[in-house]
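Practice problem: predict the structure.
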Amino acid sequence: MPAETQHIQLAASLIVGQVLEAGRNLNQVLDESLRGKAAWEPSQRAALQDLSYGSLRHYGQLRAVLDKLLHKPLSDERVRFLLLVALYQLQYGKSAGHAVVDHAVRAAQTINPRVGGLVNAILRNFLRNRAELLEQASHSAEGKYSYRQWWVDELNAQYGERCTAILEAGNQRPPMTLRVNQRRGSTADYLAQLARQGYSAIQIEPGALLLEKPLPVDRLPGFSDGMVSVQDAGAQYAAGLLDVRDGMRVLDACAAPGGKTAHILEQADAELVAVDRDAARLERVAENLQRLQLNAQLVAGDAAAPDTWWDGRPFQRILADVPCSASGVVRRHPDIKWLRRRSDIVAFSAQQTEILRALWRLLAQDGKLLYATCSVFRQENEDVVTSFLAQHRDALRIPVALPGDTEGQLLPDDQHDGFYYALLQKIA
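Answer:
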């Protein structure tokens, strides 16, 4: 283990603390931290990301273990977060246990010179009694699954015996899936390019390749030339379900960061309007389109208030990729498990209903609207759509075919994240 590990441990503990204490977004805090460490090598930056994400991914278990190891509460929360990071390394990392402990002690002493002995004792106690401590931690739902109790209760009520598999999938490292730009070459050709460079992948959908091991995007053949994009296989269903054909006028609402926008344009020559209320995030859409040599009209606007940006011309296709709890993508955003509250699901449902109603009147007769979320909670998905259909007699639901489909619900597994899709057509 390199000597700088103690600095990486300390940096990760500060990031974890910002998320759990201040309720900040993990990606944002990590980006800020990495910008302040421009001299770090790529391996160091990857290690910091792993410790930050992993500690939050397994926070429930790690916290339950730490509570068993402490005889009284720590007076300094910074030390507690450092211990959580070190416990993650000891349980899930590949480094030698004694080295992890030694570096954690040095890191703790930079916080308070008097706590080194305590940190050493706690971590070595874990190494001696690991099995017993982990078994004790599993007595609570949070300690066993590393989700809040209400989250476990909701999934259990909605999915029954499938609940455990959903929870476990959310605690895995996310797969890296590629979307091959069919305008630039076939999926088979790109698979061969990967193989020639020594990268292993399998085809899991017509345009989707699952990498055996994640890669930095700058090592992907032709990435800068727009031959391929990184997009979860579950998200790639959207463009096909929307069934866009050449010449159609299409709206992508809540479009940022633009993966689905680009995919639609890779499949059809459409007049596409991409709307997002966050102008800064629209810049990412523009960057993606530029790399892929695609064009769309980008509009900063609120999907729930189209009168502020709509020109009155109807759309033949609308993708309503609405804001949601993101409960289907928690392995990519583990902070969500600890920052979301049960009341947030009710708030998201109300917002989703408002957006769906607002966008419906923009849809042309016989046009299709695809309602999409990256949630696994019924309140944001089936309940919203069922209520909408009951109130709109001009809406017809068209069945969608998804693997393991449960009324449009795609559950997370080793190949894709969790998504929900409902395809609606406007009828007379």
